[in-house]
Amino acid sequence: MIKKKLEPVKTKAENKGSYTAADIYVLEGLDPVRKRPGMYIGTTGPDGLHHLIWECVDNSLDEAMAGHAKNIEVTLMKGDIVKTADDGRGIPVEIHPQTKKSALETVMTTLHAGAKFGSKAYQVSGGLHGVGVSVVCALSNWMKAEVCRDGFKYAQEYQKGKVKTKVQKLGSCRGSGTTVTFEPDSTIFKEVKFDLKRILNHLRQQAYLTRGVKIKVSDERTDQKMTYDFYFEGGISSYVKYLVRGSNPRHENVFYCSGEKDNVAVEIALQYIDEVECYEESFANNIFTPEGGTHLTGLRGALTRGLNDYARKNNILKEKDENLTGEDTREGLVGVVSVKIREPQFEGQTKAKLGNVEAKSAVETIACEGLSDFLERNPNDASAMIEKCLLSAKARRAAKAAKETVLRKGVLDGLSLPGKLADCISRDPAKSELYIVEGPSAGGSAKGGRDRRFQAILPLRGKILNVERVRLDKMLDSKEIRALIIAFGTAIAQDFNIEKLRYHKIVIMCDADSDGNHIRTLLLTFFYRHFKPLIEKGYIYIAQPPLYKIQAGKEVRYVYTEDKKDKIIEELTAKNSKIVNVVNEETDLSEVIDEGIKKTKSGITVQRYKGLGEMNPEQLWETTMDPAHRVFRQVTIDDVRSADKIFDVLMGDEVLPRKKFILAYAQEAKNIDI
Hints:
Distance between the termini: 98 Å
Largest sheet: 9 strands, mixed
Radius of gyration: 31 Å
Helix content: 25-40%
Number of helices: 20
CATH topology of the largest domain: Heat Shock Protein 90
Shape: globular
Strand content: 15-25%
CATH architecture of the largest domain: 2-Layer Sandwich
CATH class of the largest domain: Alpha Beta
Number of domains: 3
CATH superfamily of the largest domain: Histidine kinase-like ATPase, C-terminal domain
């Protein structure tokens, strides 16, 4: 038998590639949160920063939903400090039997610690994972918790997730409640700047969802203190009225129902408006679920079934007629569904989607019973709702026929791509770019200046159709719209498939004037209403062509913003000459900026571009299309509801809301060509 000689184990110094027990790091307490904050709050940007407030308020709302709190306060203090307070029961301060520390300290400094894991303290709560307020503690430069309980006031301070002081008994107090004051850690967050509008929108929403609870917001960051109070007896019925403001309701009464089934408490409110879009919001234990889930699925199913049953029963739908589809019953719908459930199953810590199976059946049962009763008791509302759905069904059939015609022509007639599209060589969507260019002149320059390996050009003739005011069948009559849809390759409506998108950069390239702004707005409306996933995926961009070309001798500089123009002129003047020759729309090459100054070869010329068509292909490539130098703005959606409302106001049929908007914001408008 041959024996192998055992080699001695090399030390860490001898072998840098070793992997031993010494390489295993154990993060204790709240260190994991500080090490990987994104895992707990999603991002260290503005969303994550504001999430700290939501986590504190969620605890107060849990007390309110349990019937122990009636008042919640949020105060923005100077120095980027936030204070949240409630009049709930107050966090216990006695020694915890497991940790041998104060329960207050345990809650504030321990992950997955709280009264929401099987105890009877909360029947429902938003803080499912028990990481909420402890994460705030971990990501704060300083935090203080104050508790009023059993006639005494207690306090404890923390620093970056570590205990700074012991729990102190400060004296007597009346009532009960918890106050948390914290200062976000500026070494964690990119920018510590709280957005009052965002906070007000979120807390207004929470006040609607928690009927009878008063939420007060104070902004003390400036000398002019501002205070806002939210209190709604109507609950989510009032919320629907708030959401439909500025629109034309199709029926007078808001449908509302509530009930409980399988330990799931359900509330539903909805109303149809005279619009094409559907707007639904769903909540589980007051937590907004932007991706919906089983509760929203239950509502949709109940709505379709309930309206079909009523229409059949009342002979509105004849035997030969096809049923209304889910698409028909959702058009123009503004609906809110809220469930309270003891053990919600969310997808991930961000809680974007509810997964409880029992929520679907509970919502569907309660919604069906409530809708049937509402329709029978309110025949005028019922007639208006069914009429709206029938109109949607008629438009859907017309749109389907128009869409099939467009797609059939696009494929079968050899016009798989629009004739005016100058396509790129690449067939890899991740590397391909489509420039949507205003006018044939700019289109010609763009085609001449592009890198045809990965850049495609689609020039548009004039302003495209305002899709906010028309249905799909009318929209597809537009040649420009059809060209865009076929160029994308994704189809549209139910047939939309983002996997077939031919370009992962779709760039809107328009002139920097009022006409260009209008065309850009029309295109953004088109994308938002019919290709929203492209925006959500980050595929839509706006090109920033230069406003000025500044030249001093052979040196050429392009300026993209007004505020940089003077700075560059000063730089070039100091570098070349004090004699300046200004060229723009109002002056020709022979005019000079100061009377009596002679034009010389060392002068500086400032040319204001009228449009993209003024640039030759080389200039357009160098300033706007070259990946090494170009300036793009990526189109994103921060607030879906606000974006939806803005498109309604600016692009819809109603003139009065648009007039009010213009009057309100006229003073803020800049760089408008007259």
